Amino acid sequence: MKRSRRCAVPPPATAQQRPTTRRTADKVMLLLFETPSGFAVFNFFATLIEQPNALEVVWLRQFQTIEDSSSAINQSTGVNGSLTEMIMKYHCPGQRMAVGESGYKKIIEERLKITCVYDPTVMELMWGIQIRMRQLVPREKSYLHESQLLPMSQGLQNVLSRYDFNYFNPDMLNERILIMAYALFECDSFENEKSGDLHHVASVIKDVSGIETDAWDLPKIATAVRRIWCPKEASNSCEFSEHEVKRLVNDADKYEVKLDKDACLKVSRQMITVFHFRNDKKILLKKYIAQALDAYEAE
To answer: What are its GO cellular component terms (predicted)?
Structure first.
């Protein structure tokens, strides 16, 4: 089984520690995020823009409060001194910066000569930071009203649609629904990340034990792994014939030659946990949407 590689979030850096190579500038972008009381500068991996399904990692570099945000960036005066200093402190030559308004893109490119990115993918990222603002920008003490979370991001609409909430009214959106939708998104992301490994396991089972696995879903493949090496852990939620169980157990030694036992067991346990976790969150999401609908219709 292949071992997945995750990018570690870099530690906070001082201006002297910031990357300066062209190669790094191509991989790591800046993001200028406006909050109710100021601006924050983040770093994130450029693959999030180039490949929207890539690992989503952002980390805060600096936040500063600004009393009058309208004077911070405008066409007449450009970018004010303190905001310019913060941006340039973390900007590397050739590095791109994501911004949340088309006007900001125009002004910053003209005045600071920094290439900016403003497109639907950037707005999805901005929306995600907005709903997690209190965690990502701890010094920001202001709260966003739920109406400020509209319109819904395309990603949230996709999650709700995937779980058969196609006709969800954006006016019913609240924090509980957001949290459940995010939990389901994380479950789906994990499943997508590990599906290739588990389907490889299924092909090995078919080759070694002669069991037809083409129609198996991921929870059944994960359960089969546990039946091979840890039969006492395997649940009865996935149906196996007595013949299949016997073949899996009897061929355990053969699988150790072709598969990484520890890695397979780890992923199988994670997949089963995610499967049950997702079922619980689906029930809660349905409940919260029903409650939001009742409240909306009562207004």
So the answer is: box C/D methylation guide snoRNP complex; small-subunit processome
